[in-house]
Amino acid sequence: MKRALCVVSLLCASSAFAMETQVLPQGAWMLDLSYWRSSIDKQWGGNRQALPLIEENRRYEPGAGLQGILAPRPKAEFDFLFIQLMYGITDRLSAAVYIPLVLRSHVSTNIQWTPGDYQSPLGRSYSEDDFWAWAGTLGQPRVPADWEGGFQMSDMILGARYLLPEFEWMKEHHFRWSGTLQVALPTGSNFDPEAAVSVGTNLWELHAAGDVEVHLSADKQFFVDEYGVPKLNIGADVFYSFFRPRQYKAGRGLQNPLLNNNAPYIGDTYIVDGGDWIGGTVSVDIAPFMGPTLPSIVSGHDLKKANALPPIFTLTLSYTRVQTFQSDWQSQSALWDYDREKYWQPGEKNILKATANVSLMRVGLPLQIYARYQAGDIIPGRYTRPANIFTAGVRVIAKFW
Fold first, then answer.
1. Which residues lie across from 148 on neighbouring strands?
2. Which residues contact 129 (CB under 8 A, 6 or more apart)?
3. Is residue 25 within 8 Å of residue 10, measured between CB atoms?
4. Reduced to 3 DSSP states, what percent helix, strand and coil does the chain have, rounded to the nearest 5?
5. Do the Cβ atoms of 166 and 157 come closer than 8 Å?
6. Cβ contacts of 1-6, under 8 Å, gap ≥ 24
7. What angle do CA 48, 351, 85 make, to 5 degrees?
8. Helix (H) or strand (E) holding 272
9. Other C-beta atoms within 10 Å of 401: how many?
10. Which interval of the chain is the signal sequence (predicted)?
């Protein structure tokens, strides 16, 4: 165990930064456990206006006109546990596996009712209670105010990053670049087409990442001290995300005959090609506090090696712009396809992130603790669904031979 901890000092200072080109030394391991709390309550329209996640439902009674309008204003919340294991195959090539586990999902439906036409049998318009009483006679239960889902798995991701060779001028100016490939395994689930409220956990429904992603990244370090530790890093990343077409089952009204019964006119199944993404990120890493430095078992009791370990505290700020392509829905109803595609036209989303990282390696513990907040709704986008995410995590870094 002593040897395992001593060679942790081989890890470069970049392991505390959110550097786009970070890789691990050969034979080193990093275990990252993080809790994510994600919430979403809107989608962006074509004019960058905020719209409800679900469109309103105008209900008609044959021969009696408009009963009223059901207008859901749902808010979805997810609790995730992310498990990431990264390994340094060589000093330039690292491989990783990401296992996202959905611990809990919760949806508040927030259904609003707008009365419709005057109903002569009642002597007034339908109230919300009137509507659900009428729907109940047809076998349609009232939609619950809250829905909660249990433990599920999302799509697992396999990744590899290669630190590209540097030209001499890159070394002189502390410039690095890398390529990254990510491939998702279809371990997530689709939403339940029969349930009144349901959420899927695949990458398309979470709108989190592509099934295949290719990244080209670069980092430029500034104010690098004699031990190779920068006080400032500016990073950039450009990427392309591919989404495979997905097949979904249509609702047959088995549980909700009025709300989920589209199979008779769109077919038993339909295909969704969500459209690919192209995007980029600009990030700034700042190390305002290098912290105390102690020779310890982590650095092999060598003060010089301890000074080359990551700063005690770093702060990362980043902006990500994602451009989405046109979606393609294929069913037996061209009109239904169009009604879906109009909400998933070419658009964009803008993501701001702030991350605080505390590394204890300089004081003898191969441990890093971090917290991050991601805001997707500060800068409006188009035809996307912005999520706000809070993350708290811990990393353990070691080498066992």
1. 106
2. none
3. yes
4. 15, 50, 40
5. no
6. 2/297, 3/400, 3/401, 4/398, 4/399, 4/400, 4/401, 5/297, 5/298, 5/366, 5/398, 6/297, 6/298, 6/299, 6/300
7. 145
8. strand 269-273
9. 6
10. 1-18
Letter string b/e over residues 145-154, b meaning 16 or more CB atoms within 10 A of that residue's CB: eebebeebeb
Tell me how far apart the alpha carbons of residues 280 and 301 are, in angstroms, rounded to a whole number. Answer: 41
Joined together, the tokens standing for residue 115 give: 């009365």
- Of 188, 189, 100, 111, which Cα lies nearest the Cα of 147? 111
pLDDT in tens, the chain (401 residues): 333 333 343 444 444 445 678 899 899 999 999 999 999 999 999 999 999 988 888 888 777 688 899 899 999 999 999 999 999 999 999 999 999 999 999 999 999 999 988 887 778 888 999 889 988 999 999 999 999 988 999 999 999 999 999 888 888 889 999 999 999 999 999 999 999 888 889 888 888 899 999 999 999 999 988 888 889 999 999 999 999 999 999 999 999 998 899 999 999 999 999 999 999 999 999 999 888 888 888 777 888 888 888 899 999 999 999 999 999 999 999 999 999 999 999 999 999 999 999 999 888 889 999 999 999 999 999 999 999 999 999 999 887 65
Local structure of residue 64 (DSSP, 8 states): T
Cα-based angle 36, 41, 43 (whole degrees, multiple of 5): 110
**Environment class of 215 (CB within 10 Å of its CB; exposed 0-12, middle 13-18, buried 19+):** buried
> What is the β-pairing status of strands 347-359 and 93-108?
unpaired
Structure tokens at 308: 């080359």
Per the listing, tokens 């037996």 go with 332
**Considering the entire predicted model, what is its pTM?**
0.88
What whole-number distance in Å separates Cα of residue 88 and Cα of residue 162?
A: 10
Neighbour count for residue 1 (Cβ, 10 Å): 8
CB 111 within 8 A of CB 143: yes
